[in-house]
Amino acid sequence: MVNVAILGFGTVGSGVAEVLTMNSALIEQRTGKAVRLKYILDVRDFPDSPYKDCFVKDFSVIESDPEVDVVVETIGGATVALDFTTRALKAGKSVVSSNKELVATHGYDLLQLAVEKGVSYLFEASVGGGIPVLRPLTNCLAGNELSEVRGILNGTTNYILTRMIRAGLSFEQALKEAQDNGYAERDPSADIEGHDACRKICILAALCFGRHIYPDQVPTQGITAITLADVDYANSCGYKIKLLGRALRMEGGKVCAYVAPHLVSSENPLAGVEDVFNAISATGNAVGDVMFYGRGAGKLPTASAVVGDIIDIAKDVTTRKRNEWAACDRSLFQSPEVLTFRWYVRAVGSMDAARAAFGEIMPLARGGAPAQEIAFLTESMTLAQLNEKLAALDVQSVIRVLA
Ligand code: HSE
User: Which stretches of the chain drop beneath a pLDDT of 50?
Assistant: First the structure.
């Protein structure tokens, strides 16, 4: 028998309880043991819940119960969740988490603690929701030197952009729909400002390149400035606007990472990733390009990944499952300003002025554009080179084009 305690009975926590119950026979068959939900920690009361006998309000009940093998942390944030995760690991319990903020900010220390205690700290659900991506990257692709990992890492923003592109909804209407569907974070600014994607690219970069990268190192831009005009111009030249997180291995063992919206060519498989779906692609020196695709948010998809981790631990609770990386070294972080891109520019002015500043450009057009509005794609250049040329224009929007 393996005993599980869930911390937080929100969207993900309640989904984990549901999957453990719904698939209990299968889980027992696959692990050779019964996996029992023993406790659920939440400050709220759930008198009508089918799990009502499991609820406790005091974490020390779980911490001090020697029968608890696995603690599932779905509280979110990096305060209470950090305290409970640290205490659970110190008490010799393995921890499974969907909490990307905690892993991105304290992952190195928590992994060190897990090593010290000989227990596992697993967080497959923290990136890509239900997509199996962390384990394949670290196990199945372990024979590769990876040069880049990139992806659509936030379901809420992908849902918003898709609804703007397909249904012509405003940003606010599409955000409301995403919140109603339970995709958004409690504070949606973490989604729309790109912080959630930033935390996920930090975790991917740490696993792929072996060193902790903190979210404050990663330049991050969300989608709040994207308008229907930008969506239309992108569409006119065969591109979709997508929020991407990217991490690249640079010369000298340096790593570069950033989060920003991009124009992605319709021919790139990432352009076909719509609604709440996420996709993560990686490039390895043996495998070439691989892509992982699936539901990046939502109750049961995320619970699916959490339960996969629980099963991994339950098969043999005495053997620590690896997730490991080295401490952060800020001198090994390369600013993304060295990267070159073609750029999409929307401005108020004349094409003649744009040509005078940029030379060769690709003009874009859309129906219903106001007089004086221009849009174009530039040749390839760095951000600094772009900014120098933009000084001649009244710029409204600037977006990278993914090569
Ligand atoms: N708010 C997140 C998203 C949830 O929309 O992707 C999954 O991490």
Answer: none
Residue 128: CB within 6 Å of ligand 1? Answer: no
Structure tokens at 385: 């080179």
Looking at ligand 1, which residue's alpha carbon is closest to its atom 7?
Answer: 297
Instruction: Give yes or no for residue 154 CB within 6 A of ligand 1.
Output: yes
Residue 402 is predicted with a pLDDT of 95
pLDDT at 70: 98
Other CB atoms within 10 A of residue 153 CB: 30
Residue 189 shares a structural domain with residue 254: yes
CB distance 99 to ligand 1 below 6 Å: no
What's the pLDDT score for residue 202? 98
0.70 cut: is pTM over it? yes
Structural domain range at position 352: 340-401
Tell whether 335 is covered by a domain: no
Helices (H), 10-72: 11-22, 24-31, 59-63
The catalytically annotated residue of 100, 200, 240, 242 is 200
What distances in angstroms separate CA 373 from CA 229, 351, 353, 365, 389, one per listed residue?
Answer: 10, 9, 12, 9, 17
Nearest atom in ligand 1 to the alpha carbon of residue 190 is 1
pLDDT at 137: 96
Residue 322 has a pLDDT of: 83
**Is 156 in the same domain as 270?**
yes
47 and 176 assigned to the same domain: no
Task: Measure 110 CA to ligand 1 centroid, in angstroms.
Answer: 22
Amino acid letter, 115: V
Q: What is the pLDDT of residue 333?
A: 96
